């Protein structure tokens, strides 16, 4: 039996604030997800997510600077590779020349000293079939190969300097493997594992798949993401990830799943719980407010405050830039 390294959960000021028992919604509660393009000069607005951009490594510093001046503490990086560089096994994820995330971690770390850098780890933006794991010869998930790939990608990101590894693939057993590999490489006390533990198979990811060019070429994700009607599987998945060594537990999507957030917070009061307000929630609130249904600030702040009420410690939101401003008003 290997022991649990608690230090991976509190080696930084922002991480320590997430361990607080008296948290309210502050700038430190927020994680801003950003899409890193393989085109180094990219600064392209994403059609399905108005106001969000795919940015290249030559633009990312200028993109983040004003947000950090406004109080941004944490980013969540999503990588995008060239279509030609995708293959069956998603090998581009390991290759510095193909996967822009590896260099951007180093760049952000050098440029912004206090910034906490999280990376989504998944294969779907790197495989030619667009599934989140490696497939066997019957086009079903090959668990062992998938878990090994996710752990290796995690090690590469951690070695580049990533502070928070956030595996979103939903392959069984990946937290154990990531934890082990980070321990073997003496990195576990320098890296937080934020597990997408209760991640449901949701149509609310639609705009994201367009943004990240990561929609599956065939089939769907219901064999690995959880059935939306099942709180039971969410509980079991969370308990499993706790036993395998996760530091932070995530529920995703947010708004339709706040009962799950509450249940998890009640069951694991000693763990920070992250809630991901996903792309479809962003698009809904954005478009409804554009059509005059409500005021965007009120709608977003109410949604986020309710996530905190349900038990969230950390909020992942595409509205982060606006919320940082609103928190100062
Ligand atoms: C990759 C991943 C997805 C999201 C985060 N990581 C898409 C998916 O699983 O289909 C969704 C984020 C969002 O919708 O904002 N596995
Ligand atoms: Zn995926």
Automatic annotation (TrEMBL):
Keyword Transit peptide: no
Catalytic activity annotation: 2 5-aminolevulinate = porphobilinogen + 2 H2O + H(+)
Assigned keywords, A-Z: Heme biosynthesis, Lyase, Porphyrin biosynthesis
EC numbers, comma separated: 4.2.1.24
Pathway where this protein functions: Porphyrin-containing compound metabolism; protoporphyrin-IX biosynthesis; coproporphyrinogen-III from 5-aminolevulinate: step 1/4
Keyword Ligase part of the UniProt annotation: no
Pfam families listed in its UniProt record: ALAD
UniProt xrefs under SUPFAM superfamilies: Aldolase
Gene3D superfamilies: Aldolase class I
UniProt cross-references to InterPro entries, sorted A to Z: ALAD (IPR001731), ALAD_AS (IPR030656), Aldolase_TIM (IPR013785)
Family to which this protein belongs: Belongs to the ALAD family.
Cross-referenced PANTHER family: DELTA-AMINOLEVULINIC ACID DEHYDRATASE (PTHR11458:SF0)
NCBIfam families, per the entry: PRK09283.1
Record's function text: Catalyzes an early step in the biosynthesis of tetrapyrroles. Binds two molecules of 5-aminolevulinate per subunit, each at a distinct site, and catalyzes their condensation to form porphobilinogen.
Subunit structure: Homooctamer; active form. Homohexamer; low activity form.
Protein name per the record: Delta-aminolevulinic acid dehydratase
Gene giving rise to this polypeptide: LOC100209337
